[in-house]
């Protein structure tokens, strides 16, 4: 029935003020108001309709994406939206597109690596979208191993130009988003060669297509790499391939903020760490962490509302059946994901602060915190995207059979999200960066250098290596010190064990390769500690609103104790806790699930998602699932006719054949 809120009873049960929680989730009242206004603007504009995306051919989908981007740009100008509002607009349009790479990587790469003069020239064009750019780093043969890239940029002093060339097939650029069909320009990463010497990977601005008719410029071969996983999903993006046949660009199109090539061809190395050439990746990894909570909360919102609507078993004497959300198994799968969504929100906020802080320090030539910023962005990108991709799939299963329908919103969300485990650095490769950072930190313990920031706990090694948890009853697991100590001791002990095992190898690099799997586990333990500690730190802030802090407290301990339960092997094998304490943690977890249960629907309402953004029949705000599932089914092209196309050619002859055979 239209107009009825099938989830009203659930909403009435809530023990906190949802409106206040919306502000906490958004980050501030201002952020909430901007998001709310822009989400409604998108939802009410027919050009941004997306419910039929799965039924479009790739070409139709791509053209509709171009239309949406053009319309969005028009609205941004008409409504004079600022940068923040424009970013929210793109977010709520919710269709991967070339603009993501233009604004998300091309512009930041120029900002981070271009000189002031270069920024002035290129950003004024890019900001008005008079040129459209992408980030062309990955090649067919190398993605993770950036130092292994093969594209060359050879300086020609005769003409004061670089010659950009693709020497082999594996050197072809492959994957850059926006490259395939749209970008007029790219920041191309290539090996800089001058005076016969290879100086490694540097960034160059290269024009790819004519600004008159969009055709590729001479000696450039460019196209789309093909259809990707899922219907709709990431197929709105033109990930591309690109080959150069001795393409010439002026010398001043090398991004020269960090290092330079003079008119004479002399290479002038940077007086800042060369790793700053990777700065765009640090920036984007930070935004990916901030985005993980968006994707996970969206899936959790769908699964929670549907779990409250769906009933199976448990009816007695003709009574009403049990809501599946009341099964402890459902809660044990769903509530840790709800808690993770909030946890990732807060760690994302903190990482944004860390990124801003390191950027300011770099501007003042203080490079001390760069390794930590790299480790945190890499490790948290890996941790949050892995958990989010797995979490979306778990939400699909939590919705039973109907979760597998495209109109549940979950299959497409998964297909769009899962490459986040690979792009901006494969998640295992990134955890190995964290492991290297941890091994360095452990090696320095006792040298007088005090670990700071996220590794400060390692400075308390004497205590953490021998302490035993003091937990004696289930409620003790709600003590932040008890939780933090267990997570710190586990992370430190795993890192120290790896370091000890490494020291048994004569060749450290060989040892590192041998211990890769353990090192990744140690890195994950360290990153989980960061998330837990930032959630606990959030609770120490002044959070107002009726009952809001209590709910966040419950979610925080669900997150921590669920991790403890999931990684029990780590905690027990490192003697951080006893089996009895593990069992008490489980008791506490069950109690927290009971406390969250009446608030579950309100906790997902606090995400403030419009039905347009969710695009899910199962996650509808009003919970009116069943009639809408039918409506969706009737819309399917297969139901356009009662007898399907192909009946006369392929079905009737078979049926007739069977008839004849049966008569024999
Ligand atoms: C909401 C808005 C969102 C906008 C964004 C839209 C998203 C759109 C979706 C997709 C876009 C996708 C884009 C891409 O995928 S772009 C390509 C990304 N590619 C990668 O991430 C490659 C992964 N590989 C690497 O990052 C590196 O090569 C490495 C980390 C694996 C290092 O390899 P290695 O060979 O060991 O190292 P090096 O010799 O190169 O350097 C070692 C040295 O440098 C330190 N270091 C490495 N990376 C960084 C860094 N980023 N910052 C600072 N320092 C770094 C490393 O720690 C070593 O330090 P040392 O031990 O002290 O020597
Ligand atoms: C949707 C999508 C969008 C993308 N957009 C862009 C873009 O805009 N611009 C761009 O330049 N690139 C882009 N990429 C490319 C992306 O950055 C790379 O695919 C990514 O960095 C992973 O590199 P790879 O493909 O070389 O993986 P590989 O390194 O080949 O990984 C294969 C396997 O090897 C393992 N492995 C690799 N090295 C190690 C190691 N040292 N130790 C242990 N295990 C290892 C990995 O864990 C993985 O299991 C995109 C990719 C995707 C999927």
Structural features:
binds flavin-adenine dinucleotide; three-stranded antiparallel sheet; binds ligand LUC3G6IP; Butyryl-CoA Dehydrogenase, subunit A, domain 2; six-stranded mixed sheet; 664 residues; alpha+beta; 23 helices
The CATH class designation of the domain at 131-271 is Mainly Beta
**Largest β sheet strand count, sense and barrel closure:** 6 strands, mixed
The value of Rg in angstroms is 27 Å
Bound molecule kinds, no repeats: ligand LUC3G6IP, flavin-adenine dinucleotide
Helix content: 40-55%
Q: The CATH topology of the domain at 131-271 is what?
A: Butyryl-CoA Dehydrogenase, subunit A, domain 2
Shape: globular
Q: In the CATH hierarchy, what is the superfamily of the domain at 131-271?
A: Butyryl-CoA Dehydrogenase, subunit A, domain 2
Distance between the termini: 53 Å
Strand runs, count: 11
- Number of continuous helical runs: 23
How much of the sequence lies in strands comes to 5-15%
How is this structure best described in words?
The protein is of the alpha+beta class and 664 residues long. The protein has a domain of 141 residues: Butyryl-CoA Dehydrogenase, subunit A, domain 2 (Beta Barrel). The protein is built from 23 helices and 11 strands. Helix 2 packs across helix 3, helix 3 crosses helix 5 and helix 10 packs antiparallel against helix 11. The protein is globular, with a radius of gyration of 27 Å. The model has no long low-confidence stretch (mean pLDDT 96). Belongs to the acyl-CoA oxidase family.
């Amino acid at each position: 029935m239209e107009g009825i809120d099938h989830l009203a009873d659930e909403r009435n049960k809530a023990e906190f003020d949802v409106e206040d929680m919306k502000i906490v989730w958004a980050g501030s009242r201002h952020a909430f108001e901007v998001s709310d206004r822009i989400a409604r603007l998108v939802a009410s504009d027919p050009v941004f309709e997306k419910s039929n995306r799965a039924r479009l051919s790739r070409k139709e989908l791509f053209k509709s994406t171009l239309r949406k981007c053009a319309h969005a740009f028009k609205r941004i100008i008409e409504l004079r939206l600022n940068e923040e509002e424009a970013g929210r607009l793109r977010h709520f349009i919710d269709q991967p597109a070339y603009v993501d790479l233009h604004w998300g990587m091309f512009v930041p790469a120029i900002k981070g690596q271009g000189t002031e003069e270069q920024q002035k020239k290129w950003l004024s064009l890019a900001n008005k979208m008079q040129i459209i750019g992408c980030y062309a780093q990955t090649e067919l043969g190398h993605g993770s191993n950036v130092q292994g890239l093969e594209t060359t940029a050879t300086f020609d002093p005769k003409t004061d130009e670089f010659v950009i060339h693709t020497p082999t097939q594996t050197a072809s650029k492959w994957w850059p988003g926006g490259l395939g069909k749209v970008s007029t320009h790219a920041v191309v990463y290539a090996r800089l060669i001058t005076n016969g010497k290879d100086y490694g990977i540097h960034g160059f601005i290269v024009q790819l297509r004519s600004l008159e008719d969009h055709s590729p410029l001479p000696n450039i071969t460019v196209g789309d790499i093909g259809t990707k996983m899922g219907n709709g999903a990431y197929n709105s993006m033109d990930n591309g391939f690109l080959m150069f046949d001795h393409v010439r660009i002026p010398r001043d199109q090398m991004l020269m903020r960090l290092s330079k090539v003079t008119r004479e061809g002399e290479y002038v190395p940077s007086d800042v760490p060369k790793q700053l050439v990777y700065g765009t990746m640090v920036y984007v990894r930070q935004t990916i962490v901030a985005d993980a909570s968006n994707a996970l909360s969206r899936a959790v919102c769908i699964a929670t509302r549907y779990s409250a609507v769906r009933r199976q078993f448990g009816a007695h004497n003709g009574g009403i059946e049990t809501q599946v959300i009341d099964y402890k198994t459902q809660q044990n799968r769903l509530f840790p994901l709800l808690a993770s969504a909030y946890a990732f929100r807060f760690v994302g906020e903190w990482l944004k602060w860390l990124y801003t802080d390191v950027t300011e320090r770099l501007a003042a030539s203080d490079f001390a915190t760069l390794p930590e910023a790299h480790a945190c962005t890499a490790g948290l990108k890996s941790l949050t995207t892995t958990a989010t991709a797995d979490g979306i799939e778990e939400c699909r299963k939590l919705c039973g059979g109907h979760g597998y329908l495209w109109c549940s919103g979950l299959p497409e969300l998964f297909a769009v999200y899962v490459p986040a485990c690979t792009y901006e650095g494969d998640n295992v490769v990134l955890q190995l960066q964290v492991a290297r950072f941890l091994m360095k930190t452990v090696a320095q313990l006792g040298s007088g250098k005090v670990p700071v920031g996220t590794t400060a706990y390692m400075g308390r090694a004497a205590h953490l290596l021998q302490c035993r948890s003091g937990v004696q009853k289930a409620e003790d697991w709600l003590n932040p010190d008890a939780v933090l100590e267990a997570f710190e001791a586990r992370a430190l002990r795993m890192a120290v064990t790896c370091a000890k095992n490494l020291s048994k190898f004569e060749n450290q690099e060989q040892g590192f390769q041998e211990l890769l799997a353990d090192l990744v586990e140690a890195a994950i333990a360290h990153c989980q500690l960061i998330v837990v500690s930032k959630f606990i730190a959030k609770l120490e802030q002044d959070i107002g609103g009726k009952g809001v802090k209590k709910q966040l407290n419950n979610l925080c301990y669900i997150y921590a104790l669920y991790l403890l339960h999931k990684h029990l092997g780590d905690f027990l094998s490192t003697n951080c806790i006893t089996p009895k304490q593990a069992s008490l943690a489980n008791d506490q977890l069950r109690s927290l699930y009971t406390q969250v249960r009446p608030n579950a629907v309100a906790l997902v309402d606090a995400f403030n998602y419009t039905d347009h953004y969710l695009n899910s029949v199962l996650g509808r705000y009003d919970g009116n699932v069943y009639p809408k599932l039918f409506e969706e089914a009737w819309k399917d092209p297969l139901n356009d006719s009662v007898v399907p196309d192909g009946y006369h050619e392929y079905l009737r002859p078979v049926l007739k054949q069977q008839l004849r055979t049966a008569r024999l």
